[in-house]
Amino acid sequence: MKTPAFNTTVLFYPHKNPKLRLLALWYFTALITVWNILGHTILGFEQSHAAPFVGVGTAIFLQYFLEWVDARAKNREVRWAGSWANFFNALPAALIPGFACSMLLYPNERLWPIAFAVVLSISSKVLIRAPVGGGRTQHIFNPSNFGIAMTLVLFPQVGFAPPYHFTENLVGVWHWILPVFILFTGVIIHGFFTGRLPLVAAWPIGFALQGQIRALIYGFPPVVPLMPMTSAAFIVFTLYMVPDPATTPLNPWRQALFGFSVAMVYGYIQILHLVFGLFFALITVCAIRGISLHLYFAFKSRKPAVPEPAVAAA
Question: Could you tell me the pTM of the whole model?
Answer without folding.
Answer: 0.91
